[in-house]
Design goal:
heterodimer, A: mainly beta, 6-stranded mixed sheet, 4-stranded antiparallel sheet, B: 7-stranded mixed sheet, 11 strands, about 0% helix, about 50% strand, globular
Chain lengths: ~120, ~110
Amino acid sequence: AQSVTQPDIHITVSEGASLELRCNYSYGATPYLFWYVQSPGQGLQLLLKYFSGDTLVQGIKGFEAEFKRSQSSFNLRKPSVHWSDAAEYFCAVPNYGGSQGNLIFGKGTKLSVKP
Amino acid sequence: NAGVTQTPKFRILKIGQSMTLQCTQDMNHNYMYWYRQDPGMGLKLIYYSVGAGITDKGEVPNGYNVSRSTTEDFPLRLELAAPSQTSVYFCAGFGQGTEAFFGQGTRLTVV
């Protein structure tokens, strides 16, 4: 069965600094890949997704992610973090192994932003 | 276009009480899901539905039940609340391209 690992539980960066959040997946083929963001007290919002083609994907709010097949990774990046980016970020893959059609989520990375 | 709407946003239950978490969507999604979110654990699938009249268990179904009489509504029922059900619950619908649309969540505390 496929799985998603987000190695960093909590990351703190200074405002204006660059950001990279790590995501590794386990799946025999190239999966669809997603990043979601959850602001405090809110539901999850799609940041970006990868289906095929160009391995560098642009999303909303200035985020991008790069798919690297050789590393089974789909890391999320932002060149300059804003205080409003403080949130929890989830990487996800579809559940190809069952009929549920759902997404399997990583455990999340909480981002704190220092002024 | 409201998307996926959950009610209530907050609720405190006593052990043994029952309640229904409401979820309604106006995006015509066939696939609907209930997840629970616990700190540091990500989201776990409770139940799902692939269309009206069809529901099935997810990863953590014990203590919950669902129904799907219409495409729009997918309520989650807790019959005998237990402290282990203290969590944040999210309803989601899946659109084209497997993009999930989430409600804003229900924060439930069982005391």
